Amino acid sequence: MSHLLDRSNLPIAYFRESDLVTAYTTAMARFRLQLTGRPGETNLAVPLEPSLLRAEFRARTWRSADGSLLQGFAGKGGFRLTVGNCLARICAASECSDAGWPVYACSDGRKRKMSVTDFVTASFDGIPYRRLSAPPSQE
Fold first, then answer.
1. How many Cβ atoms from other residues are within 10 Å of residue 128's Cβ?
2. I want to staple 62 with a disulfide (CB 3.0 to 4.6 A). Which of 30, 70, 85, 128 is the partner?
3. For residues 24, 29, 32 and 38, what is the CA-based torsion angle, rounded to 10 degrees?
């Protein structure tokens, strides 16, 4: 999880937007308080559940241990990288395009390297991701 703090460009992206960050965090706190006071309506936001995605999306989506997602674009050779778990905390998304295997150039200005261990596991920027359509781990 340390990669979220070490490599995130969120502080740079919102450096001059303190009012926006304040408004966002205030609204999220207000929503959280409103929802906790509603009996029977807890857990309205749930983690991404692979069984809820269409098969073609499950086949092109990988998730890391911290909830970050790597989603492949059909026929385009690129990916959307979502760093962080958007349902649990703030997250950032980047579009990454093929810059010559195994390197991808991402819209956040960084170049990332991919390696594929097997059908189930891919590593992107040194972080392992597991394919959502893969059978449950036997560990």
1. 13
2. 70
3. -120
The reply to whether the predicted model has a pTM over 0.85 is no
**Better pLDDT: 129 or 7:** 129
Separation between Cα atoms, residue 101 and residue 12, nearest integer Å: 29
pLDDT tens readout for residues 24-38: 667 777 777 666 666
Distance between terminal CA atoms of the chain? 21
Contact (CB, 8 A) for 119 and 52:
no
For residues 41 and 113, the model is more confident at 113
- Residue 49 CA, distance from chain mean position: 13
CA 56, CA 7: separation in Å to the nearest integer?
A: 30
